[in-house]
Amino acid sequence: MAHSPGPTPPEEFNNQFPFDNDGFQSKNVHQESSAWNELQHAANEFSAPSTRQLTDPSMWSLSEWSNVPTHKLRITSEIPVASFPTDVFADLLAAKEILTLLLRSTNTRCLGYHCATGISWGACDLCFDGLDTVAEVLLNGTSIGKSDNMFVPLRISVAHLLTKNNVLEIRFESAVNVAKARELEYGKSMVWNGDASRVYLRKAQYHWGWDWGPTLVSCGVWRNHATLTVFAEVDISRIGLLLEDMACLVSLQTPTGITLFNKAFRGFKTKPYNDSHKVLEYTIENPELWFPIGTGKQPLYKLKCTLLHPSYPIPLSTYSRKLGIRRLELIETKLPGPGDKMTFYFSINNRPIFCAGSNWIPADSLLSRVTKDTYKKWLTVLVNGNQNMVRVWGGGVYEDDSFYQLCDEMGILVWQDFMFACGAYPAHGEFVLSVEKEAQAVVKRLRRFASVAIFTGNNEDYAFAESYPELGYDLEMMMRNSGLHPNFLPDTFTSGYFLPGSPWTSNGSASSDTSSGDIHQWNVWHGTQEPYQNYGKLAGRFISEFGMQAFPTVKTTHSFFEAGTSEAEMDPVSTGFAKRLAGYVFENVRFGTGLNEFTYATQLMQAEALSTAYRLWKREWGSPHNRRVGGALVWQLNDCWPCVSWSICDYNLNPKPAYFSIKRELAPITLGIERRVVEESDTIFLDVWGVNTSDTEIRGTLVITGFDYESGHNPHKWTFGKSVFP
Question: Residue 608 is inside which H or E element, if any?
Fold first, then answer.
């Protein structure tokens, strides 16, 4: 069988097989190497993919390409890229073109990225996991692809355009301008945060600003995966013949390294550049089950798939993953008593779980600064606080695989929103098609993680629609227009649950209905601005958002408040926060006039409010047949920049007192006490209770001691023996 001659090696090919990681303009040039000779010999027999990473920042540069005048900034020469993944603000900061994002305002303009390559051989696919957002990709001056959804990977065949020396260029248009143009075309929408035009772009919505974050509408290669996948040139008929004789070697190991399964599957038949599918079913007898933290261990099986061909000495492709095995159920059954109240809680491996955790927003306003180490630090904070669930909020991004892998390893359940938040979204054809691609890509990527418990279609879009009758709220219409339609999900989505939105009620009533589903309980702080002592009366079946603001540490505050800062400048994103926060503090805490004193007062008040909520709602976990509250997720764990917010840890990973008060309330065994007021009675009533969320029944003696407030004496003591906490 005839085949093409072996390819000529690129000039910069070095001795790391098959490609180096020093960029396409490597200084370590090796014209000949044993690795290259091996690759050339193998290519004469068969075409094997070789992946070249494009993630070395030295390969890239930043420059302005638009002819439209800028505001304050004009780049007259190329700027080195500081890191990869990257975004325009990070690179401008590193180049000192802008000095800070924390003080005052800065107007900039989107630019373009360039990359020099030296590959000129074979079939080649260019792959990006994420371009943010409105981008055109050019190779050697020829447009080869476009993207306007930062959540959809882009793959482009580029073999026909490669030469010996290549220039790859990515041109990013202003997301602000594109969104505004689409708003003019399709009509002005409505939102709760940011500019209303944001709904027309599939981009992180918080980039347009939120009530806890700045307006930084960035652009760049935001995912840490950009590659060229190269295939040596071989006669097509030869490829077709060989593809019929390929085999897939599948191995499965237990968490302790014992091989359960190791078998080759033959008979793959496919045409070149098309997919081939094989379904493997294997039953693991008595598997080691994955449990959330605090309820069991997190064993992970090791799966490895290797694509082989008898005529080729090197594996064509290898795929390996760690997988957890668990049985997850969302329990929605009728509660005892009158009315239509329904439970809403999760059961893992037939064990009911009280889900206590936090809401997660992106860990930085500049996504390129978020790394696996960033995730690990934040998730360690969460686990150390006795929390077992994190909700990835729908106005940010679908996090990197490393986030979910860490959740698998650490035993953290994930409540995953789709990225729609607080607005009325369009439903024209191009937008719907883009959302469908997004949903398919996201679910296929995340469904394998044992930690991912539930997907929800949006954050508060239904609540938003209910607040504006002029929108013509209709449930079926909103299912199509305001988030994710269930039909967009892959047929293979069988390992988790999907709800149209959060909050969501299963009985079709308003999203604020506390009788079923999940609620966002904002009648403390927002809404009716109830005292936090009323949290017990405001319980729902599952509270997926609630919160209270507080200042960060004084050191963090000084990083964004200059001397002489006015109240208006102190309140750049959350309208009226100072007055509302002061009101809650005045009602509960006495304090001095300095920054230190007021900071402490806000933090003490936040700690008391959030611990009160958990104490009262955890009590409602109840008995096996009367789970009145299935979980509560505080808003929010983290910040994306230094600010005054609802977070329980500030941007610099400094826990606020609320973090520790919540940790105390989320211990497996806790006591609670509440004064119960009875009108027209001189008797003081105290409710005292214990909650046990462990597997072990606790028996002991309960002692209650009363102290005289003025003298400090304790003249009253009550002892209750044989107390049982099931």
Answer: helix 595-619
